Amino acid sequence: MTTATASAPTNKLGLTKQDYVGSKSTLCAGCGHDAITAQIISAAFESSIEGHRVTKYSGIGCSSKTPAYFINQGWGFNSVHGRMPAIATGASLANRNLINIGVSGDGDSMSIGMGQFVHAVRRNIPMIYIIEDNGVYGLTKGQFSATADQGSHLKSGSVNNLPPIDPCTLAIELGCGFVARCFSGNPKQLNAILKAAFAYEGTVVLDIISPCVTFNNHDTSTRSYKHVKDHDFPLHDLGFIQYSEIEEVEIPAGQTEVVTFPDGSKVAIKAIHESYDPTDRFSAMKAIHESMAKGEFLTGLLYINPTQPPLPQVLNLVDEPLATLDESLVKPSPAVLEEIMRSLM
Amino acid sequence: MAASLATPAPALGAKTRINDFSIQVATVNGSGSQTANTVLLRAIFQMGVFVSGKNLFPSNIAGLPTWFTIRASAKGYVARKASNEMLILMNPETAKEDIAKADVGALVIYDEPLQLDKLRSDLAFIPVPFQKLVTASCPEPKLHKLVKNMIYVGVAARQLNVDMEEVKKAITKQLKGKAKAIEINQAAAVAGYDWALENLPDQDHIKVVRDNKTQGLIIVDGNEACALGALFAGVTVVGWYPITPASSLVETFIEYAEEYRKDPKTGKSTVAIVQMEDELASAGVVLAAGWAGARSMTSTAGPGVSLMSEFIGLGYYVEAPGVFFNVARTGPSTGLPTRTQQSDVELCAKCSHGDTQHINLFPGNMEECFQFAYDAFDLAEWFQTPIFVVTDLDLGMQNWSSKPFTYPTRPYNRGKVLNEQQLAEAKDWGRYKDVDGDGICYRSLPGTPGGKGSYFTRGSGHNAYAQYSEKPEDYVEVVDRLKRKYETAKTHVPKPVFRNLGSAKGILAFGSSDPAVIEAQDILAEGGLKTDYLRLRALPFTAEVDAFVSEKKVVYVVEQNRDGQLANLFKEGYPEFATKFKSVLHYNGHAIDAKCIVDQITAFEQK
């Protein structure tokens, strides 16, 4: 841990942003994923996240390498292709004090890992589930993924004839209580959403359009920097105010909608694109479908329901981490065994 | 009616098989026959006689044929017996075939309208007017179908000289607290008993005579025994997916956890149980929970292990603990889901791609199911790896009598886990550094404060400090250490048990084959062939196994699969002795019986 110097600002834990970094990225220069990593670092720093409580999970692919690039103080688990949700499920049940961040890609989540994605969302695992979405398999050198737009071209010239799967509408359909879409090229929006995500108790599904500079950044790609910039329609200006800051921050009146989390934190949402209510599941679905039909990327907080109970709560687990419960709390007494044996006689 | 309950003195002849017979009951599944059969089994058990039950059931909910075999044995032989002395035929679909297969002289209790008595002249037929009796004894017509089976329990009890009070007690036990059901079923059993007393001549073919062999014993199945082992081992995370014949392990655990794993003050649970979307996800939950410090488990069967194998390999390589119960069934593929086999031996020994070796525990009876389940959690945490506890449908789902389980007083061994202070004091700690030379490294748990001990777990190449590495020397260092760790396990896993009659000829078996092997050993000895028997209880092979294999001139490896999978592991493990191993196999889906072992060993001996 580095010591805070006079020049480097510190957060409530007395830590600098440098305390939230990880190893050096080995991704291609200009990769959208690195911009996302940078915002995870910033948001964790600004939210004063305790690094030792952070667990970082991933599957396989370029995106899945990134947990090594942020929050070195946390524990990382780079598992197998498409199976990150099961890892997050097991660890989050073992220790409910962990702050769980899963980083996946469009291939990892929407193809091989679709089953696990769907069921993790359905169970409302306490985790931020980030999909670094570039429409392409990068690590295996440029095959289409299931989020690639119909008619989009590969660098090699081949055309995708199949319709895309949209992680956001899917997540909303599955009952996810926090669904957002961002563009890796819009750090301000991503930062606000990540901070809100850290305050949320259940599954956060965050689809981040993150162009692949090597395999999917050409003129005919719908996931290129240029195309996404031209078609990015931010829904609103977002402000996230942590519970501890409520007294200090004044929320502007008027156009701003405020969503309050169970811990008292607030998200202030000021619509800029059009009238959009992120607390209404049905209107959210409608708006997303309409924008997709127009070829737009609607970005921002698409849907939020801050009160959905996460899995450990649904299972009515004890408050302490299960992992470290003392033997005396989990091993029934000899009298219990005797009672059971008698019943079997 | 009460007068009939006094059991008359049994008619015994010179050839009467006292407390030594098998009964096969043929019914339609979903007709409540399981309850009736368990009552009959329990009543004989309560008469103080060793008894075992094998349910041969279809992969179906209702309407297909099912057979239940009850074996009583004064000598304590509890394996399936190939021949039956009594048949109870309630299923019109199979009755003719059952008659054709019946052993000469068998007593055949059957539903009168089936008119089976013309089919053979070498059987003793006992037609019973079940419909008439059920109509007279049960006031509710809609229950007739279910209660009808309890009538044959009464008839059989009378024919066998089983005390009717024991039958009534068994019904009360079986139907725990359901007063009306108890009353109706007891009435039906009594009706059968009374009818038999008045209408049937006594027989002296097979009889139950009160004994004291089962005093203080319990009746339990292996899935329940394993569930109890896990309960007392303090499992805290369970990820599972339903599959025959493994479901009842977790389901029984859930029932016990409801009662014994709630915080008495808050009512909150000290165990998380999640039915996952498939076995692969279950395996992920188990290993990640183990990685995060929980005691975790799943229970599955062969198809589930196949699906889990991707994660099992990860668990082996990243060194995450977890307990995997495999209640094996008949493969390959879907195979015979409700039939038994020991055909996952090689799968569990080396589950997943690449070089992998796993610790396996092979319980052979109910006490071991309980004890090994308990031990498996210690082994998982000590060795930081997936542990297989391999049983099968025969152990897992059938009724076995057993001594009551002994309370496991040994405190949990949570393994080499460094806490905040130890991490602060540790010099140059590396997650995969072999400090003690036993191949087992020190780990930290996610969430440990203090700023030390975080590391990156990855299924890709890594070095002793858990850093990504593709260097050949780093790779080899890790996989060689894993092999060393497996060697260390040889002194930690359960040793084999022996039943030596004094011979240079060895029999080697594991798990549910045990009772059949013991019986076969006795039959062979009576015929002049003495054998020494080693029952393997774990992988890797321990020093006792090494000695047995090197000492014996021949080793008959008895197992319930086609390919001699355990023998293959022996041939691979002891190449210098490869020609010693002769396979004795049984793999038709039924539990192994002594006769098939005797026949095959005899054939080898005559060569």
Descriptive keywords:
heterodimer; A: 345 residues; alpha/beta; Rossmann fold; eight-stranded mixed beta sheet; three-stranded antiparallel beta sheet; 12 helices; 30% helix; 20% strand; B: 607 residues; Pyruvate-ferredoxin Oxidoreductase, domain 3; seven-stranded mixed beta sheet; six-stranded mixed beta sheet; 23 strands; globular
Percent of residues in helices of chain B comes to: 25-40%
- CATH class membership of the largest domain in chain B: Alpha Beta
Q: What is the typical, i.e. mean, pLDDT of chain B?
A: 95
Please state the second-level CATH architecture of chain A.
Answer: 3-Layer(aba) Sandwich
Q: Could you give the count of β-strands of chain B?
A: 23
One letter per element, helices H and strands E, the order of chain A comes to: HEHEHEHHEEEHEHEHEEEEHEHHH
Strand order of the largest sheet of chain B: 11-10-12-13-15-14-21
Q: Any guess at the CATH architecture of the largest domain in chain B?
A: 3-Layer(aba) Sandwich
The rounded Rg of chain B comes to 27 Å
What's the number of structural domains of chain A? 1
Which structural class best describes the helix and strand composition of chain B?
A: alpha/beta
Query: Main β-sheet of chain A: number of strands, strand sense, barrel status?
Result: 8 strands, mixed
